[in-house]
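Q: Hi! First time doing this. I have a protein sequence and I read that you can turn it into a structure. Is that right? Here it is:
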Amino acid sequence: MPVRIRFALHGPRHSRIFHMVVVDSTKRRDARPLETLAVYDPQLKPGEDRKTVKWSSQRIKHWLRQGAEPSTSVVRLLTMGGILSPTSRYHQRHGDSTTQSS
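A: Yes, that's right. Below is the predicted 3D structure, encoded as structure tokens:
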């Protein structure tokens, strides 16, 4: 069963929350996830100066070892969080827009 790690949108239109989920790639877009790995709320609350992500790095690494394919946006976030290195195989597959030449 091929699986993907991707973001799922939740919440009202101007207050979106993103869940990083593992989903069977053959299922529909809004299918029930196999597991929720992270919650990312891009909205800053009063008094906060940084956006935060709550994730389980052990479970993310587990799914990557099992062969789950992360989406481009997931690769970018995992690289910023230090879970993936900038030289990982996922960067070569998706291609980084800053390294592509015209």
